[in-house]
UniProtKB/TrEMBL annotation, chain A:
GO terms for cellular component: mitochondrion; transferase complex. This is Prenyl (decaprenyl) diphosphate synthase, subunit 2. One of its GO terms (molecular function) is prenyltransferase activity. PANTHER family: ALL TRANS-POLYPRENYL-DIPHOSPHATE SYNTHASE PDSS2, GERANYLGERANYL PYROPHOSPHATE SYNTHASE. It comes from Pygocentrus nattereri.
Automatic annotation (TrEMBL), chain B:
SUPFAM superfamilies: Terpenoid synthases. One of its GO terms (biological process) is ubiquinone biosynthetic process. It comes from Pygocentrus nattereri (Red-bellied piranha). Pathway: Cofactor biosynthesis; ubiquinone biosynthesis. Heterotetrameric enzyme that catalyzes the condensation of farnesyl diphosphate (FPP), which acts as a primer, and isopentenyl diphosphate (IPP) to produce prenyl diphosphates of varying chain lengths and participates in the determination of the side chain of ubiquinone. Supplies nona and decaprenyl diphosphate, the precursors for the side chain of the isoprenoid quinones ubiquinone-9 (Q9)and ubiquinone-10 (Q10) respectively. The enzyme adds isopentenyl diphosphate molecules sequentially to farnesyl diphosphate with trans stereochemistry. GO terms for molecular function: all-trans-decaprenyl-diphosphate synthase activity; metal ion binding. This is All trans-polyprenyl-diphosphate synthase PDSS1. One of its GO terms (cellular component) is heterotetrameric polyprenyl diphosphate synthase complex. Its cofactor is Mg(2+). Its EC number is 2.5.1.91.
Amino acid sequence: MAHLRTCITKMAVWSRLACLGSVSRGHRTLSIFSSSSPSNWTKVVSDAEKIVGYPTSFMSLRCLLSDELSNVAMHVRKLVGTKHPLLNTARGFVYDSKHNLQMRGLVVLLMSKAAGPSSTTPDALLPDMVSGIYPSQRNLAEITELIHTAFLVHRGIVNLKDWTFSDGPLKEMQFGNKMAILSGDFLLANACTGLAQLNNTKVVELISSAIGDLVQGVYHENSSSTEEGSLSLASWEDQTFLSHGALLAKSCQAAMELARHNTEAQMLAYQYGKHLALGHTLNLDLQPFLKSSSDPTVFSLESAPVVFHRLIVGPERWLHQLQQSQSTTKQTDYSKLQRLIKTEQGVSQAADLCSYHGNKALEAIRLFPPSEARSALENIASAVMKF
Amino acid sequence: MAAPWRVYRSRSGAVSGFVRAVWTGRTGAAAEEGLYEAEVLVPVRPVRNAVRPNSFTRYRNRFLYPTPRICCCRIHSDTKLKDPFSLVQKDLQNLYEDIKKLLVSKAELKALCDYYFDGKGKAFRPMIVVLMARACNIHSNRQGDLLPAQRSIAMISEMIHTASLVHDDVIDGSDTRRGKTTINEVWGERKAILAGDFILSAASMALARIGNNAVVSVLSQVVEDLVRGEFMQLGSKENENERFKHYLEKTFKKTASLIANSCKAVSILVNSDPEVHEIAYQYGRNVGIAFQLVDDVLDFTSCANHLGKPSAADLKLGLATGPVLFACQQFPELHAMIMRRFGSDGDVDRAWRYVLQSDGVEQTNYLAQRYCQEAIRQISRLRPSTERDALIRLTELVLSRDK
């Protein structure tokens, strides 16, 4: 009972934090997922959640309720009014839970269920399965979410040398960094111990390599704008795979390994995860370009339509267009830039590529035997191709 | 003035100044198995007597002959004591080169990851791990030769250590480390954190490739302890008794857990006897705590730049380490300063002076000696070997190091 009460208190801390976060006008938002996903997507996801038995957020919940992270939550309030990214990430823990934040875990669970027990599984192990999913696979799904969340947090570490007065007091930005480092490390450490408990060193190796991929992907995010020479479609795909695809692909593969499925099943699961993640990223990147033009949206210059546009027009014209859409105060007029980008094929190329990856994901999942879980995974892949 | 945390007096009259208290806090992997209750040496104000070291000089040969009631305690009489460093030299050759081979990444990230594996580190952890591995191998009726997996553990221990240093430097805002500009200072905080994460992921992959679930589990515990230790460092305890316990627990998690669990891992790889694992773990745990206690002393006694970091660095970070906690018993004025984490003007200087006026430094050194004695008692339960004796000698080096 007392334990329950502490839990409730801790939950209250987080939800209060979420409210505080929404008041601040944090600018450096981590727009990994836009909150404007199509309602279709939300429906697909909530339908799918019913199939896997219970929602996937339990591991994250356990971490959120730990003394360590509750402490961070108390401290993060000090950041209100600053532009430290941790504030928005923390808000996301609570608010974005129905928006994709747990998407990876859900896909891992559906994939586990779609594949079912392997033919070599002794019957004695079958009763362990809940809703057709092994406990180890549920743990894996949670670990995947932990790792993903850890990097949402570590992505938001600020270089203090770039600090400007408008960010908020330097001391608080330092403090924000400290909290971000510690909470990210805490989530990663929990992922490490969770992995060890799976008692499968192949899975440990696979997921550790996914962490390495993710680091490399995040490390090189926002760097292609400076290295114009290395810009290409292939390098965009490689980079996006590392930062957005590797974790899902390798977690899907690991879910097969945990059920002792053969290499072929593992590769299919990997392919599904990879292509779904790439399709999903492209879909999100396209969102700002598909809305009505009256609604000015800020978009990343690293997003797929912009990168493809830059490849089409070449570096000189791109530079010219950038200058064109900048006012005298060096502020970028995004609606103007958007109009310029829309005159070329970058947007449609990105849409085509999105369909390509969505279809590749469908192809992979359709090689699994038909089931409710498989249909859910097909629906998710199809939703990724809809705008 | 009797300290409030006294539990019962040590039976050994020689150990004046200390009582043993049973600390029921869970410590690491061993506690998980319910094998023992961690015994922590909790200091009380010393009775000024002959046993108390009267200067900072450490005794050269004090620990070479542990008490005779322990079996296998005699040092090989026919072998000359070998320097631990020269014993492992061959095994640790190319250690850094091999670590760098594990850090596969592109361009700039690679440079960040390799930055501290420049061969200029002490490789203190790999050295203990290799000696422990060889000592356990001989104990287990094998040749002393190192197994490849044991050498991997030596590399992994150094990698985990380095990854945590990189993150600590960002958290503490340090600008130099081992006489080098820190990664965060050169490349910025964001990239430094990612480099630390990358080193950890490479270590985790290497660990998995050993293919032993028990070993994976033991070293994953280290990663969790490191973070929990860092969290513990955020808070101060009001109660003096709790404060010391908190300090020792933090010291275990931040420093000793890595050494203890790496030692345990190499023993698991060669021997299935849990008692041997426990000896390895306890040796590492005790040496690790002693190592950190000495480190905390050096923060007060070593002149700037000698340690690769400025002195009184801990005070400046708001941290109350052993010497301060002891000094606080003599100078209660320190209590308020500890609670405000030396945040008021002049606190650092004042605290520094109090510590040097008190016998906080001696007491911390003395505590470190006690931990080393316990380490020796543990390791002496292994069958005699050159490497085992080097581990005994190593405790001396831990106590006498001045940087």
